[in-house]
Amino acid sequence: MPSNVNPTVRRRRLGQELRRLRELKGMTAEEVAERLLVSQSKISRLENGRRSISQRDVRDLCGVYEVEDHRIVDSLMQMAKDSRQQGWWHAFGDIPYSVYIGLETDAESLRVYEPQVVPGLLQTRSYAEALINGALPEAPQTDIDKRVSVRARRQDRITTQEGPLRLWAVVDEAALRRMVGGRQVMIEQLEQLVELSHLPHVTIQVLPFDMGAHPGINGQYAILEFPDTADSSVVYIEGVTSDLYLEKANDVQRYSVMYEHLRAQALNVEQTRHYIADIAKTYAQLSTD
């Protein structure tokens, strides 16, 4: 597929446009569903971009909304066609968080708070493999290898020299103290964190234990922002069986304010590098005892 076609983003944009047309018509999702003899949940899924949309769906919806401009209909039909193409991640088979990967692939910036583990985009291969093995003890090795490979491919966003992702990560001290994969794996992981922190588009801050209670105490989340103003920012919260995507402006604003407080309470960049290096030294001392 063309590199500039991201099916996840196409679905979001198409869904936003269909929602706009519905609201201009003054109809509720329930009313549209009744007209098309489908469930209200289908209309909602089409509008939030979580479900693939066919050209027939677009045609039917444009009919309900009485869209008479053929150029608009043709444009929406093309977006529907593009949204059904496959992103690079589909080559790895069924990935449970494929919607997030699609968003991350097209994002301009990512702000993430991780309380338990090193953020995926900053993980070494050995750390990622040990982490996934621990999180999915009953998964076959083929699934583990697939997830590790996908994680490694995602990291192209911060290692590329052309339009890299602007990454800001606040990491709780617990993520650095939790021994994943053994001492040597942790030493290599911490050294990589320090190395990556020198990239101009990567900012890493550690939130030490002695900071006490803080706005991120309830758990991990990420805020994705996109280069096209037509694409609203998204708050992503990872779950065990399903993930949560928040796109309402009030929700995004609330999490953004929380993130500003986290950044203010965390160590600055230089302090963070020294802090991580000191923790790495403790692992090295343990390995020689």
Automatic annotation (TrEMBL):
> HTH cro/C1-type domain location, by residue?
18-73
Pfam families, per database record: DUF5753 (PF19054), HTH_31 (PF13560)
Q: Which Gene3D superfamilies match?
A: lambda repressor-like DNA-binding domains
Q: Which domain of life is it from?
A: Bacteria
Which CDD domains does the record cross-reference, listed alphabetically? Answer: HTH_XRE (cd00093)
Q: What is this protein called?
A: Helix-turn-helix transcriptional regulator
Instruction: State the organism of origin.
Output: Streptomyces yanii
